[in-house]
Design goal:
- The structure holds 2 protein chains of 2 kinds.
- Chain A has 12 helices and 5 strands.
- Chain A is α/β, with parallel strands linked by helices.
- The termini of chain A are far apart.
- By secondary structure, chain B is α+β, with helices and mostly antiparallel strands.
- Chain B folds into 2 domains: 67 residues, no CATH class; 338 residues, Orthogonal Bundle (Cytochrome-c3 Hydrogenase, chain B), CATH 1.10.645.10.
- Chain B is 43% helix and 17% strand.
- A 4-stranded mixed β-sheet of chain B has the order 7-6-5-10. In chain B, strands 2-1-14 form a 3-stranded mixed β-sheet, covered by helices on one side.
- In chain B, helix 3 runs antiparallel to helix 4.
- The two termini of chain B are 29 Å apart.
- Classes of the chains: A alpha/beta, B alpha+beta.
- At the A-B interface, helix 1, helix 2, helix 5 and helix 9 of A face helix 1, helix 4, helix 5 and helix 6 of B.
């Protein structure tokens, strides 16, 4: 039986929770795999190696930098879950700042902390086999990935932009119709274009699509009245480090 | 060590207390001399990087503090920013927020009851193990949780980190037709929630009581969820705007989560048992009846019975959601305008695991100049340590392994926002 392990680094737990949120599929999945390590769900911890490891969260401490190496060594296929694991997450906002100053804002005694100056994706430390993007991930993509790995095939994960999904769902374009700023053209599909469905511009939860046209997007955002600073801030949220170059170009 | 007015000690987000922790117990001459609950979760510095963001951004950003209770973060952030900008939401939009929040109470409480807490009482390492023997029970829990998630998805646009919430209201309000299928689902969920109360009421509860002061929002006339004044069982009552006059935070060397205390009074507990103890009379008749049948009195001071309170609150949240859907009329506009202005705003709501306070300072352009977030887990931590000291003192004859398991269960009573609370304890007993 395939053994599955779930690991957490700096994150909000929302991506692992997406597995527990598969209410209709969870017990079926549990019949098909042996859950060997999943602290959010079970006290039982079985020793490795593990066929498939799902990793949530980013690397922000020296101890975690060492721990991910051990997990990689104990794992057959390693899949990263979500914006923290694939792009450093929102906590990567420290990468453009002074982490000591950040710590002093939050803690009276920052010297009690042992943290790295950066928040980095898992792939910056070890080889990663597949990446699920999103803040949070889409549980449909998670199930597709697990089903594919159980069947011994590659998961079908889109790399095109949100605009494709948005059009397929017949949503009215929020930029064209309402002048709302939208990162859809440069953002990876996967969420189901849920924000434009609500009349809201995409804010980039899933990070950059393959080959985004940053210059065209910058012009589009400027046309909605955004300043260079607004654009930078727009990019600098949940996938700040993945959008890094685009944000710099735009400003 | 530190004082509330010292801005350097601001607690940051809840996510830091998710993840791994350790407990150190020192025993000298057969007596427990020190108990420390250590929380290792790496800091993520939300309060630092919120500075410089627009006043419209904290609801989306702070949602990322916790994947289990993002709505609570969005609601407290909205309340605080609207307070800073002098905006009050019209009743229809406020009701819609309450409806969304009911969804989060349902999914979070049911996650905790079925997947995190109940396996302890039944002797299973997980709900998945329980499902091998009693699949029907776990299926009931998952179906009930799904009803909560569906509600968050329909009103909030996504189950984890909803996208439909904004300062001033929503991006789009649901059509009555969107809510009709939900109502049918919630009718079924109500029976499942009542069955859940009966189920957990039958668990074996250790005889353990605390006498901590308890703190929660109260709203005379109805059970407080998304607003209220702060009240304690010790008789304190104050407006949310006075929160920082009464709650002080300290940093301790052994934890990345700050400890909160009531000024001049000491540690306290927030969470479902506190809400129930302060507001049980405002529950619906059906929820009160279920509570009474489950053996709950008007107060709940046995932390093990918190699972029963969560189940009762789930009944209430399902019923309240049905009531709100039945009386729903789409508000004429999805959001009121919240013009930026310089000022300080404070907001508190009842996250599933307790009172969640936010404060933002805005400049005239609407940029955040400082942020402070006081999550329930940091408020509870000192009281939990106190309980653990007494708990361990009565169990020193147990092996370390057995004691660890019992301490884990005891900690889970408080539903700390440690998603991996099912196995987060590394117990060190120094019996020297």
């Amino acid at each position: 039986m395939t053994t599955l392990a779930v690991w957490k680094f700096a994150s909000c737990d929302g991506c692992q929770l997406s597995l527990l949120d598969c209410e209709d599929e969870l017990l079926i999945l549990a019949d098909r795999v042996r859950i060997a390590h999943f602290l959010e769900a079970s006290r039982e911890v079985l020793p490795g190696p593990y066929d498939v490891s799902l990793v949530e969260g980013s690397i922000t401490t020296p101890a975690d930098a060492a721990r991910i190496e051990e997990i990689r060594a104990a794992s057959g296929i390693l899949v990263t879950l979500g914006a923290c694991a694939t792009a450093g997450g929102i906590q990567a906002l420290r990468n453009n700042a002074d982490v000591a100053e950040f710590a002093s804002v939050v803690y009276a005694r920052p010297d009690y902390l042992d943290v790295l100056a950066t928040s980095t994706p898992i792939a910056a430390h070890v080889d990663v086999d597949y990446e699920l993007h999103g803040c949070p991930i889409d549980k449909g993509q998670l199930l597709e990935t697990l089903a594919a790995l159980l069947a011994g095939r590659k998961p079908d994960l889109p790399a095109h932009s949100v605009c494709f999904d948005c059009k397929q769902r017949h949503h009215v374009c929020v930029v064209v119709a309402r002048g709302e700023p939208c990162l859809g053209p440069v953002t990876r599909a996967g969420c189901g274009a849920i924000c434009p469905a609500l009349g809201r511009g995409c804010f980039g939860c899933f990070g950059p699509a393959d080959s985004p046209n940053g210059a065209a997007e910058a012009a589009l955002l400027r046309a909605t009245g955004m300043s260079g600073e607004d654009i930078q801030r727009f990019y600098r949220t949940f996938n700040v480090s993945a959008y890094g170059a685009a944000a710099e170009e735009a400003s | 060590m530190t004082h509330r007015n010292d801005r350097l000690i601001d607690v940051r987000g809840l996510a830091r207390v998710e993840g791994e922790g350790a407990m150190h117990v020192r025993v000298r001459d057969g007596a427990v001399t020190d108990v420390r609950l250590e929380i290792y979760e790496p800091p993520r510095f939300f309060e630092a990087f919120l500075r410089g963001r627009r006043h419209t951004e904290p609801p989306d950003i702070t949602a990322r503090i916790c994947g289990i209770c993002p709505v609570a973060y969005q609601m407290s952030a909205c309340a605080a920013i609207e307070d800073a900008c002098g905006v009050t939401l019209p009743a229809g939009l406020a009701d819609l927020r309450r409806l969304l929040y009911c969804g989060e109470w349902i999914e979070s409480h049911v996650l905790h009851i079925y997947l995190l807490h109940a396996p302890d009482f039944l002797g299973y390492p997980s709900a998945l193990h329980l499902a091998r023997d009693r699949r029907d029970l776990v299926e009931r829990g998952l179906a009930l949780k799904k009803a909560g998630n569906d509600l968050v998805e329909v009103v909030g646009g996504r189950a984890v980190h909803p996208v439909n919430v904004r300062v001033g209201g929503f991006y789009r309000v649901p059509r009555p037709g969107d809510l009709a299928p939900l109502r049918e689902r919630l009718r079924v969920a109500l029976d499942q929630a009542l069955d859940t109360v009966r189920w957990v009421a039958g668990f074996d509860f250790p005889d353990f009581h605390h006498d901590h002061e308890m703190l929660a929002l109260v709203e005379p006339g109805r059970y407080a969820i998304e607003r209220g004044v702060v009240a304690t069982t010790g008789g304190l009552s104050f407006d949310v705007s006075r929160f920082e006059d009464h709650v002080v935070e300290e940093q301790v060397p052994h934890s990345t989560a700050l400890h909160a205390r009531l000024a001049g009074r000491g540690h306290y507990l927030t969470g479902p048992a506190a809400r129930y103890t302060l507001s049980s009379r405002w529950l619906s008749p059906l929820a009160r009846e279920a509570a009474a049948a489950a053996g709950l009195e008007d107060q709940c001071r046995n932390p093990y019975r918190s699972i029963v309170v969560r189940a009762v609150e789930t009944v209430y949240a399902v019923e309240e959601a049905i009531r709100l859907i039945d009386s729903y009329e789409p508000p004429p506009i999805p959001a009121v305008t919240v013009p930026a202005r310089a000022g300080v705003g404070r907001g508190a709501t009842e996250a599933p695991r307790g009172t969640l306070f936010h404060r933002y300072e805005l400049d005239a352009d609407g940029l955040v100049t400082s942020a402070r977030i006081v999550p329930p887990t940091s408020q509870n931590q000192a009281a939990v340590e106190d309980d653990l000291a007494r708990f361990v003192a009565g169990r020193l004859d147990l092996t370390d392994e057995h004691l660890t398991a019992e301490c884990e269960q005891a900690i889970r009573n408080y539903d700390p926002c440690i998603s991996c609370a099912t196995h987060f304890l590394d117990l060190h007993v120094d019996r020297g």
